[in-house]
Amino acid sequence: MNEQKENIAVLEDREAELFESEEVQRHPERETKKILLIYIKTIDARLPFRVREVEIIGKLKIQAMRRFGIDVSQAPQYFFLYQGKRLEESKTLEQERIPNKAELFLKNEPAVG
């Protein structure tokens, strides 16, 4: 099982490298460092997302919820964690210093009451 997870991680890394090199070939004038490959995890799954550094974290949360099949009306109950720190939804990935290939955790806090 661990070997399978390692193989998947290697394939995802290769995919990211190919994407970055294709971006440079198609648009050499663009700074490819602005495009990040971010992995978002829930308790059950892990998915890759290609996003720009200037992506607002709250918007990314909604995109992630949709891809994971989570009802977006529950968005106020969800948040991202990165290295144990809760990310501010009004900030960008760049402002929160999220690097390429970072792993964000999409967590939910039960409604109070």
Structural features, described:
This protein has 113 residues and is α+β, with helices and mostly antiparallel strands. The chain has a domain at 33-108: Phosphatidylinositol 3-kinase Catalytic Subunit, Chain A, domain 1 (Ubiquitin-like (UB roll)). It contains 2 helices and 5 strands, in the order αββαβββ. It has a 5-stranded mixed sheet. Strand 3 (78-82) and strand 4 form a beta hairpin. It starts with a helix and ends in a 5-residue tail after the last strand.
CATH class of the domain at 33-108: Alpha Beta
Structural class computed from helices and strand pairing: alpha+beta
Helix percentage = 25-40%
Oligomer: single chain
Shape: globular
CATH superfamily grouping of the domain at 33-108: Phosphatidylinositol 3-kinase Catalytic Subunit, Chain A, domain 1
The description of the largest β-sheet is: 5 strands, mixed
- Ranges with pLDDT <50 over ≥5 residues? none
CATH architecture annotation name of the domain at 33-108: Roll
User: Strand tally, please?
Assistant: 5
Order of helices and strands: HEEHEEE
> How many DSSP H or I helices?
2
What's the average pLDDT? 83
Describe the protein's topology.
Blueprint: H1 2-26, E1 35-41, E2 46-52, H2 57-68, E3 78-82, E4 85-86, E5 103-108
Parallel strand pairs: 1-5
Antiparallel strand pairs: 1-2, 3-4, 3-5
Q: Tags for this entry?
A:
2 helices, alpha+beta, Ubiquitin-like (UB roll)
Summarize the structure.
The chain is of the alpha+beta class. The chain has 2 helices and 5 strands.
